[in-house]
Amino acid sequence: MNSSKSLGFTLIEVLVVIIIIGILATISTATLKNYFVKARDAARKATVNNITLIVKVDASDQWSNEKYIYNVFGLRQLFEKNDYRVPKASNNYCYLLGMGKGTQVVGDDNQFFVLVWGEESNLELFNKPGPIVDGTQEVRLGLWTLFEAGDIVRENFVCENGIVDTSSFQVLRSFANPLLGQDPVYFGIDANGEIQNSAPGQ
Fold this sequence. Notes:
This protein is of the alpha+beta class. It has one domain. The protein contains five helices and seven strands. It has helices at 11-60, 72-81, 123-126, 137-148, 166-180; strands at residues 95-100, 111-118, 130-135, 159-160, 163-164, 185-189, 195-200. Strand 6 and strand 7 form a beta hairpin. The termini are far apart. 30% of the residues are buried.
């Protein structure tokens, strides 16, 4: 009497394999997404640091009360002189630069900052995403305080189709004006890395 052996898989075995594959795929996707987020934040931090360095080095050669105070063409020329171009962004976040002559009536008290939103840059500190910021110490600390208080939010950095949304940046300007002091000016850098607009603080 011949006995026949089944060479196929049972339904339970197939279901177990499918479930295992699904779990592994979910873990891999989440890990991969996390790497992409970290890479984008690292690129933003590098951009903020590079802009800050360029502006500070340029200002160190200017012993007048006009350092940090550029018009849009002057800022473009400064980047070109340093052979620097802001990388294109893969999302709808734009950069904001602010510059002012400070709050002192007499003396050199110029202030500036560079700011962009990070997807997870502040998770360890605040358990939530937040801004990536650099610049002069007084303004940088002031902006951090505003973020901790909930006054600076993601919507302040939105680009519409890669273009600087001046209405959302207006909220940031209103908070930053007292930190920058006299004659504040602002510049937006869009998702294509273009210095797109300059506007007075008021």
